[in-house]
Amino acid sequence: MKLTPSPFAPDRFPDLPSVKGVEAATASRGFYEKRGALRDDVFLFVCPEGTSVAGVFTRSTTASADVDWCREALKEGGGRGRALVANAGNSNAFTGKAGVLKNEATLSAMTGTLGVDKAECFLAATGVIGEPLPDAAYVGKMLPELKDKLGPPDWEACARAFMTTDTFPKGAGATCEIDGVPVAIAGILKGSGMIMPNMATMLCYVFTDAAIAPDVLDRLLRDTVDPTLNSVTVDGDTSTSDTCMLFATGASGAPMIDTLEDPRLDGFREALFDVFRDLSHQLVKDGEGASKFVEIRVEGAVSQSSAKTIGLHIANSPLIKTAIAAGDANWGRIVMAIGKSLEPIAKDEMRIWFADHLVAEGGMRASGYDEALATAHFAGDHIAIRVDVAAGRDTWTVWTCDLTHAYVDINGAYRT
Hints:
With about 425 residues, the chain is of the alpha+beta class. It has helices at about 65-75, 95-115, 145-150, 155-160, 215-225, 265-285, 305-315, 320-325, 330-340, 370-380, 405-410; strands spanning about 25, 40-45, 50-55, 85-90, 120-130, 170-180, 180-190, 205-210, 245-250, 295-300, 350-355, 355-360, 365, 380-390, 395-400. The strands form 3 sheets. A 6-stranded mixed beta sheet has the order 13-12-11-14-10-15. Strands 3-9-8-7-6 form a 5-stranded mixed beta sheet, with helices on both faces. The model has no long low-confidence stretch (mean pLDDT about 95).
């Protein structure tokens, strides 16, 4: 399947900072050979002893065997992590006993080759659902080769290795200080379709050399994921494999942070949010077939949860997404989506803007509405929709993309 690059694809992969203590390697297991592509499709990350790790995963009740294992390992290992192996091309989801055996063989290879505890090893897989691998050790056989290649991460190579229908590799990084000591953050993400995360995103791994206790790291991750990765949607579908993990090696030399209230966390918290927001935007901009990036801000809601629900109803409406694709500033469809959310609103006080142009208020079209201005905004590739439902004081922002015929083409040919 030949993919047309996203119009938002950057000219080059960003320069990510060096994260002390992290090593990585990529290799090709041949998952894409039958499709005529020779490419790296598996990566290994290794972190030093004592590395803290936190993770959030899909809430799907048909989660993959890899997700099941990662949840178990986080509990057994007490939030410590040493190694991560991920592959593209096969999701190891709904593969029954074969999926469990694949994990056991991969974990055995990791512990034997790397000399690390099983409970500190994590797995991920992305690709086609329901196809068992040729043999249980299919991925595990790669560990000796991957170990021999370990070195400072080539972030772009790693970001490419777990791409599926992505048209560009996604990465983001930041630096900050904790108590005067420089700290680095770097992350990679893959995802393009089957995107409406519910606790995480498709596959996302972020690394820092800050020293942060596991329970604090877990809270930081959850607080950061909700307004970023959990606030994007491409098509309203949540994957069986959604995983987002954050590793903190402590190798920077910065002091250990063991409480969420530590004021020294302020700069780190802001930098971490910037990295996750950047990755979230890249995810939407590489949505399958996307030609427009859409920001939807809901104001005046009775709660943040209500604002988010309204925003997602707008973002996931096929009628709205196809209108945006066609450049049709059909504000009536926004009204429709707000109403079907069944969230509390004050209908006659509600207002809708396209960018800074007020299009609806007082239960009807705004008196100053200008169709030409609205259409001109929808002709661009960055669309801003703002809604005030006038029922409260809470807000939320959701990001999405349009729905074009290319989405149908990509998903109609996904397994070929």
